[in-house]
Design a protein that fits this description.
heterodimer, A: 325 residues, alpha/beta, B: mainly alpha, MetI-like fold, globular, binds adenosine-5'-diphosphate, binds magnesium ion
Chain lengths: 325, 318
């Protein structure tokens, strides 16, 4: 077994709000192997973005703070290193792509300059050289007329093109890990697949690892090696993508799967959305946080928070019913 | 771009027309009469000029609307704003002397105001709710609360008590000795600029806080940029767009402030000219000053609009 590129252990991130503190990410652990794609899946508000931002120490403080846990990356614990060391990693060893291509690019700077910037900052490459590299990157993400596009501003780009530019920016310093936080959620359905294919292709080409955050399990099947399902700030199920598809163990995962069209063409089953609302993190129930929405929930489920355990080889799940079976 | 400027200039014409109406007629509403003043102050009777003769000599014998038409006519066709009722010096001559002085004072005040406001406002936003932020904000409230005539008087009085320094009484023109002139203008410029910087500082802080919350700032952090790069390269230009508007809107305030500051520091600019003219009910001078100030304010606003193009790439002049 190769040593993982990234090992997250017991990551817990809290926010102080008017209604008390909220554990947006609660005791989350996962590994990402070199070149591997991990998908983090969950409904909105389940703590996916906070997990991603915690990895780069980009949680706004106040109100947020990483309370405990380790983030081991290339032999360093990112929770312990200095701000300067962290800056040297951001955009260089670990790059991030955000959900909103419309607002994630600076409106007053040219796209070329924004792509060249990490090269200039991390490598000390002079601007003229960095701009040449930016042009090559724009070509790589298949933006037509790259040379001309270099000097234009984000508002002259369509949503899909902006996300391509964001990908170019993320790839600029050949990072080992790319975190893409719902990179296609804000885009037209027609360009979503193009962008994901491009992202997958380019990460494979550079042998970078990818953390792909999505609320769409349909996406996971095509692009991910490993999957972690999040609910209420915790991971409730974790397995290889194929395994998770064939044998979903947690009732929440099963619910998610039956609420998306299956890519394997089994259209006989009707789509059933999960009933109820995602949990309010400031008022989580004592037991399993999914119990209030779970059809199989018993009184046992309300007593104690179920632990995430290996229920089958390399297949983790956090459901006490699973243990009973 | 050139078409845009031309169109904007043309659009100023109707505004100018209304401004001229307002200026001409309101000035004549100032209570008191120039004739009475002249007859009482000058030894007019010695010249055996009767009241009627004086009125006729000054062109005040025709109906007021005719006076207006004559006034506008000579501006449009001869570029002539009339003559002072007292000294028969052409108003344009006064303005040519006085306008550059006030413009210099205003420019210094504006630059000083921005130099005080922008760095402190940015710092304040970067360190929101820290001690430094509170000190900066208290400072801006202080600047806002202190009237510039008080600050100006203090600057006149205390340095002369403590160090025997006092502002030169005789004004030295920029063309005579730029350095001496600058030394003379910098203190009143700072006093005037300080008052205006308070609001600019507040707005810079507010806009900067707003900008620092934007997604593209998070992107900048995620790229591994240092705080100065994030704040100055990615934040400041976005925050400055509304600040520039404010500075443009402050132009009239600047001129109003100049009237007071020129009085305190005895600077022969438009302010002093206006004050003397009002005291003497010298209508052509008053209207001339107002008209020129009005045009200046309109042009400054046009310049502000044009400067958006430099700050915001989305702005295209068509
Ligand atoms: N800036 C913040 N201030 C307070 N609470 C926050 C903040 N950001 C996130 N949270 C909390 O964390 C929870 C998870 O958010 P997030 O990770 O963005 O969810 P998602 O899975 O949709 O990406 C939110 O429901 C909210 O309670
Ligand atoms: Mg999110």
């Amino acid at each position: 077994m190769t040593t993982p590129l990234l090992q997250v252990r017991g990551l817990t991130t809290r926010f102080r709000t008017e209604r008390g503190t909220v554990k947006a990410v609660d005791n989350v652990s996962f590994d990402v192997a070199p070149g591997e794609t991990l998908a983090i899946v969950g409904e909105s508000g389940s703590g996916k973005s906070v997990t991603a931002l915690s990895l780069l120490r980009l949680i706004p403080n106040p109100p947020g703070v990483i309370e405990s846990g380790e983030i081991l990356f290339e032999g360093k614990d990112l929770t312990k290193i200095s701000d300067a060391e962290m800056r040297a990693i951001r955009g260089n060893r670990i790059a991030m792509i955000f959900q909103e291509p419309m607002s994630s690019l600076n409106p007053v700077l040219t796209v070329g300059m924004q792509i060249a910037e990490p090269i200039n900052v991390h490598r000390g490459t002079p601007w003229s050289k960095a701009m040449e590299a930016a042009k090559a990157l724009l070509e790589k993400v298949r933006i037509p007329d790259a040379a001309k596009r270099l000097d234009t501003f984000p508002h002259q780009y369509s949503g899909g093109m902006r996300q391509r530019a964001m990908i170019a920016m993320a790839l600029a310093c050949k990072p080992r890990l790319i975190i893409a936080d719902e990179p296609t959620t804000a885009l037209d359905v027609t360009v979503q697949a193009q962008i994901l294919d491009l992202l997958k292709e380019l990460t494979r080409e550079t042998q970078a690892s990818l953390i792909l955050i999505t609320h769409d399990l349909g996406v996971v099947a095509r692009y991910a090696d490993q999957v972690a399902v999040m609910y209420g700030g915790r991971i409730v199920e974790q397995a290889a993508a194929r395994d998770l598809y064939k044998n979903p163990r947690h009732p929440y995962t099963r619910g998610l799967l039956s609420s998306v069209p299956r890519l394997d063409g089994d259209t006989s089953k009707r789509l059933v959305p999960i009933e109820g609302q995602p949990p309010d993190l400031s008022r989580l129930p004592a037991g399993c946080s999914f119990a209030p929405r779970c059809k199989q929930a018993s009184s046992e489920c309300l007593k104690q928070q179920p632990a995430l355990r290996e229920r089958a080889p390399n297949h983790l799940s956090a459901c006490i019913l699973d243990a009973i079976q | 771009m050139r078409n845009y400027v031309l169109r904007r200039l043309l659009a100023l014409l109707p505004t100018l027309f209304f401004a001229s109406l307002i200026v001409f007629f309101t000035v004549r509403l100032i209570p008191g009469d120039v004739i009475d003043l002249m007859l009482s102050q000058n030894d007019v009777s010695a010249d055996k000029m009767s009241r009627d003769q004086v009125i006729r000599a000054l062109g005040l014998d025709v109906p007021i609307w005719e006076q207006y038409l004559r006034w506008v006519g000579s501006i449009v066709f001869k570029g002539d704003l009339g003559k002072s009722l007292w000294h028969s010096t052409p108003v344009t001559e006064y303005l040519a002397q006085r306008l550059p002085v006030t413009l210099e004072l205003g420019l210094i005040a504006m630059i000083v105001g921005l130099l005080i406001a922008v760095p402190i406002g940015v710092y304040s936003a970067m360190r929101q709710d820290t001690k430094g932020d509170y000190i900066a904000r208290s400072f801006s409230i202080l600047l806002l609360a202190v009237p510039s005539f008080w600050l100006g008087t203090m600057v006149m009085v205390f340095p002369s008590i403590w160090w025997g320094w006092s502002p030169a009484i005789e004004y030295i023109k920029f063309t005579e000795d730029p350095w001496q002139n600058f030394k003379q203008m910098i203190v009143p410029g700072v006093v005037l600029g300080a008052a205006l910087s308070a609001i600019t500082m507040r707005l810079t802080r507010t806009m900067m806080l707003e900008v620092l919350r934007q997604d593209y700032i998070r992107t900048a952090w995620a790229k591994g940029l240092s705080e100065p790069l994030v704040v100055l390269r990615h934040g400041l230009r976005n925050a400055l767009i509304p600040v520039v508007t404010l500075v443009g809107l402050q132009a009239p305030l600047l001129i109003g402030g100049a009237v007071i500051i020129e009085q305190i520091f005895v600077i022969p600019g438009m302010g002093l000219l206006l004050l003397d003219a009002v005291n003497q009910r010298d209508y052509p001078v008053i209207t001339g000053v107002f008209l020129v100030v009005g045009v200046a304010v309109m042009l400054i606003n046009l310049l502000v609009d044009l400067s958006y193009g430099l700050l915001d790439p989305k702005v295209r002049f068509r």
